[in-house]
Model the fold of this input.
Amino acid sequence: MKILIASDIHGSARYCRELVDLYHASGAERMLLLGDLLYHGPRNDLPEEYAPKEVIRMLSDLRDEIFAVRGNCEAEVDQMVLPFPVMADYCILPVCAGTRILYATHGHVYHEGNRPPMKKWDILLHGHTHVWKAEKRDGYYLLNPGSVSLPKEGNPRTCAFLEEDIFTVTDLSGKELCSIDLTQE
Done:
């Protein structure tokens, strides 16, 4: 199964539209959203084409294909307007033929400095930093799809794909930036 993974849309209709277009063009079967979907937050500038109601419409059209976790900008009102669950702090998915756990979270609570319970070579996937990452660490993998609308540290707008134990970071046009095989220990 091919999963598109994205974080930090922050209400940008323009970049949400590009993300949805990439999702359809890629042949992915599911979308995993790592939070901060509608609101830009008090620390961020307004993203380009800030239109949360339009983002709601685009994501609602994919309601049966989306898994999502809560970001630090999500509030109960976001759950009231979105037709799929967005208030879970984390999502756990079996990967690598079910031998490892992928712990997906936003990153404001659990991150590389405060890891959740993990066994050796499990995978920590989070957004929040707005900087993509795909690294094999000492005993685990650290993955981050970057930010759809407000990238930092000179990065382009990015998302990622998980397919057959390969995690690939791409820009919103689908250009591959990095790929890592999660079966390697």
